Amino acid sequence: MFEKVLLALALFCAAVALGPPPMAAPLNTAAGKPPMSKAQPTVKARPGSPEKKTDGASKTNAPGEGKKSPSGKALSEKVPVKKAPPGRAPPEKTSATPPAPIPATSEAGKKIFADKGCGGCHATSGPEKRIPVTERANIKGPSLWYAGSKFRPGYPAKWLASPKAFRGVLHGTMKKGVTPHPGLSPDEAKAAGAYLESLRDAEMPSGVVPSWKKIPRRVLRRARILFQKKQPCYACHRVKIRKTVYRTPIKLGGFSGPHLIDAGLRLRPDFIAAFLKNPARYNPNGRMPIYSDKAFTRLSEKDIIGLAAYISTFKEKP
Question: Is 204 in contact with 270 (CB distance < 8 Å)?
Answer without folding.
Answer: yes
